[in-house]
Amino acid sequence: MSGSNSMMGEGSWISWFLGLQGNEFLCRVPLDYLEDKFNLTGLETLVGNFSQAFDLILDPQFDNEDWGTVDTSDAEQLYGLIHARYILTTRGVEDMCLKYERGDFGSCPRVYCKGQKTLPVGLSDLSCQSHVKVYCPRCQDIFHPRTRCALLDGAMFGTSFPHMFFMQLPNKRPQPPKDKYVARLYGFQLHQKALNPSQTPEEEPKNSGPSLSQSTFGALDNSQASCPPWRRFNGI
Ligand SMILES: [Zn+2]
């Protein structure tokens, strides 16, 4: 954190916030976008203490001493929600494209994606639902980021960003992977059946007659014994 501390008194709140370790996925939202009230529509109800949070974001000479008693989390949440809107605009996509091509968002961990660069994505457009994930445009799957940015709120990027990115920049979309991993044992390809999980007693048909599991569970009725509620929930 020592590197980011030196920036605290030197510039705006945004510079300070973007300079914090773990915030490298975020891009700089331009002042004219922030000051256009249209871009803030509806955010007043989503962020506590909206006006103070907004003043803090626009502070050109942010000093932690002045704001010492103020909780900056509202400002961080508000900036994140504005950021999610900004990166869907043409300018925002261009800004994020520079970071994408620089590799700021990391690469896909799948071997056959061959180091394909990823883009950040949220699983929800609402704050505090889940942390940010990264989307691989080659295998079209999502992964946990392998950097400190993994702690950022997914709502700072939203659920649409990577798809808007490739909508606006279709020539950046990579070809799907040509190869797929094949499981082999001593050189022989495994049959699909061998790769399926083996049946557990809980998954046996209910009407299969008396079984060990029934006698083991004694007083429990048949449905509880064959599929306890927690087991059913975990299976979803
Ligand atoms: Zn991939």
Automatic annotation (TrEMBL):
Coiled coil: none annotated. InterPro entries: Casein_kin_II_reg-sub_N, Casein_kinase_II_beta-like, Casein_kinase_II_reg-sub. Residues 195-228 are annotated as: Disordered. GO terms for cellular component: cytoplasm; protein kinase CK2 complex. This is Casein kinase II subunit beta. One of its GO terms (molecular function) is protein kinase regulator activity. PROSITE patterns: CK2_BETA. Belongs to the casein kinase 2 subunit beta family. It comes from Drosophila gunungcola (fruit fly). Residues 208-226 have a biased composition (Polar residues).
